[in-house]
């Protein structure tokens, strides 16, 4: 079995060599067969298993009048075990973002392992898959590749899972009140604007009667000035009235029952000054 294992080892067929060496070791169980098993395991990248076998060989007791070949194999096994102990990579997974009492499950390569301790986990070199699960948090799945002698520390912050949608609160009654107030201000503004406008035109007509061509009586200036002031007041009143109407329209739109299950829209009042007054536009944005 040992000769067959050596032939497979030299040919690079490590799995076949391991099988032959293990058969030989199970028959005689001497340091030379155990050391051969440990060496091929190391070549296969199974460092933890190789360390365990080498440690077993190193701690074996020598027999009476043991041949030097077996003693030398035991000493080499002890040196190999020490080298493998330093070469095995480790992984430390740190999880934050969870309450201290919340249970967190960590699996590496499908095997659940302890989490929360300060001791790094020894793993063989190569790629490893791990996952983190905690109630009420989004699960984490990741892959990591470890090299020989590597000491890796990874940290993950768990994110709470999305909470169920909350019920929409009852619609506020401020929208109808806004509509009433807006229409009230609008009506008052238009009424004042109309009244001052009529008075302005009356004063203008009176001033015109006191003028003949380019000549005017002194009293005409007073009526003309009064007409201009009333016209300005009328324009301002009409502007305020239009703004009030716009606010009322916004109040009606936002209080519509059909909007209960839709996303709220935004409304903007745009007021533009004109030569004879003001213009108001209600712009609705989605």
Q: How many distinct beta strands?
A: 11
Strand fraction? 15-25%
Continuous helix count: 7
Radius of gyration: 46 Å
Shape: rod-shaped
Q: What is the spatial order of strands in the main beta sheet?
A: 3-2-5-6
Low-confidence stretches: 258-265
Order of helices and strands: HHHHHEEEEEEEHEEHEE
The assigned structural class equals alpha+beta
Instruction: Domain count, please report it.
Output: 3
Distance between the termini: 81 Å
Overall pLDDT score: 78
- Please describe the biggest sheet, giving its number of strands, its sense, and whether it closes into a barrel: 4 strands, antiparallel
Helix content: 40-55%
What is shown here, in short?
The chain is an alpha+beta fold and 286 residues long.
What would the keywords be for this entry?
286 residues, alpha+beta, Serine Threonine Protein Phosphatase 5, Tetratricopeptide repeat, Immunoglobulin-like, 4-stranded antiparallel beta sheet, 7 helices, 11 strands
How do the helices and strands line up, and which of them pair or pack?
Elements (H helix, E strand, L loop, with lengths): L1 H9 L3 H15 L2 H13 L3 H12 L9 H20 L2 E7 L7 E5 L2 E3 L7 E2 L3 E9 L5 E7 L4 E7 L16 H36 L1 E2 L2 E2 L1 H37 L11 E9 L2 E9 L1
Parallel strand pairs: 1-7
Antiparallel strand pairs: 1-4, 2-3, 2-5, 5-6, 8-9, 10-11
């Amino acid at each position: 079995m040992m000769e067959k294992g050596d032939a497979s080892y030299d040919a690079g067929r490590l799995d076949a060599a391991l099988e032959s060496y293990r058969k030989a070791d199970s028959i005689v169980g001497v340091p030379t067969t155990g050391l051969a098993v440990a060496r091929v395991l190391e070549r296969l990248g199974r460092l933890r298993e190789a360390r365990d076998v080498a440690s077993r060989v190193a701690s074996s007791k020598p027999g009476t009048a043991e041949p030097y070949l077996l003693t030398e194999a035991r000493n080499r096994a002890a040196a190999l075990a020490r080298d493998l102990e330093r070469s095995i990579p480790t992984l430390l997974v740190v999880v934050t973002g969870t309450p201290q009492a919340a249970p967190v499950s960590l699996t590496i390569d499908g095997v659940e392992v302890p989490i929360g301790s300060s001791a790094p986990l020894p793993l063989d070199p190569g790629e490893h898959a791990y996952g983190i699960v905690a109630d009420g948090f989004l699960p984490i799945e990741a892959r990591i590749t470890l090299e020989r002698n590597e000491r890796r520390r990874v940290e993950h912050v768990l994110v709470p899972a999305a909470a169920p949608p909350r019920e929409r609160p009852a619609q506020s009654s401020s929208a109808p009140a806004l509509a009433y107030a807006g229409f009230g201000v609008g009506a008052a503004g238009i009424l004042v604007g109309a009244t001052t406008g009529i008075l302005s035109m009356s004063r203008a007509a009176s001033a015109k009667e006191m003028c003949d061509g380019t000549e005017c009586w002194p009293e005409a200036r007073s009526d003309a000035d009064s007409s201009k002031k009333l016209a300005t007041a009328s324009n301002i009143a009409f502007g305020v009235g239009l703004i009030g109407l716009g606010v009322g329209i916004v109040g009606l739109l936002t209080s519509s029952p059909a909007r209960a299950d839709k996303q709220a829209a935004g409304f903007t009042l745009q007021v533009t000054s004109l030569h004879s007054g003001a213009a108001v536009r209600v712009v609705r944005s989605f």
